[in-house]
Design a protein that fits this description.
With 197 residues, the chain is α+β, with helices and mostly antiparallel strands. The protein has one domain. It is built from four helices and six strands. A six-stranded antiparallel β-sheet has the order 1-2-3-4-6-5. β1 and β2 form a beta hairpin. α1 packs across α4 and α3 packs antiparallel against α4. It is elongated and about 55 Å long.
Length: 197
């Protein structure tokens, strides 16, 4: 019986997913914290926030932030194609010339799918949007000049409760949009300049 009788008993699959998420490993440049999860999207959910740590980040690279939510519905909604659904968000400022790159959205989406594939994450029904925002300051904000920002929102259905690879891929994506290249664990970064290829 749960400590609070009003709290629902967690399904075994969701408890296993929570354990998997909490056991995930992230790059040293990233700080990941558990945050309050949305309560209106599924019967069960858990959420994390991530930020690139400025103290460990190159001065010539931008910062990034992200959110990761794992939803669980034992009824396996038809739209999900399974009992679990990941919903994530990543955002970072960019240099204006990079924001003007016509292939930026496609590259950002490929960073996500490549990160999932590199970790062997088993998933289906991936969908999302990559948004480039260009801005120019006026009046009191004129000194800020031109700027750009990238936002990537995505969702997909993990095959089962083994979701550590999924949250690790999301963490890698946060680092990549901050300008950090993909790096094997334990290898020091030589440069954090962002390149679009």
């Amino acid at each position: 019986m749960p400590a609070n009788a009003s709290e629902p008993v967690l399904p075994a699959a969701f408890s296993a997913a929570i354990d998997s998420l909490r056991a995930a490993e992230h790059r040293s440049e990233l700080t990941v914290t558990e945050i309050a999860a949305p309560t209106n999207l599924a019967p069960f959910s858990i959420a994390f926030a991530a930020d690139v740590l400025p103290a460990r980040h190159s001065q010539d690279a931008d910062l990034a932030t992200g959110r990761f939510v794992l939803l669980h519905d034992p009824a396996a909604p038809e739209a999900w194609g399974g009992e679990f659904r990941v919903v994530c968000y990543v955002q970072a400022p960019l240099e204006t010339d990079i924001g003007l790159d016509p292939f930026l959205a496609e590259v950002a989406w490929s960073w996500l799918t490549d990160a999932l594939d590199a970790r062997g994450a088993d998933y289906s029904a991936a969908s999302g949007t990559a948004t480039k925002i260009l801005s120019t300051g006026f009046g009191g904000l004129e000194e800020q000049g031109d700027g750009a920002q990238l936002e990537l929102r995505a969702s997909w259905t993990p095959a089962d409760h083994s979701v550590a690879a999924h949250v690790e891929a999301w963490g890698e994506l946060v680092c990549m949009v901050a300008g950090l290249p993909p790096t094997p664990d334990g290898v020091a970064l030589l440069s954090a300049r962002r390149t679009i290829t």
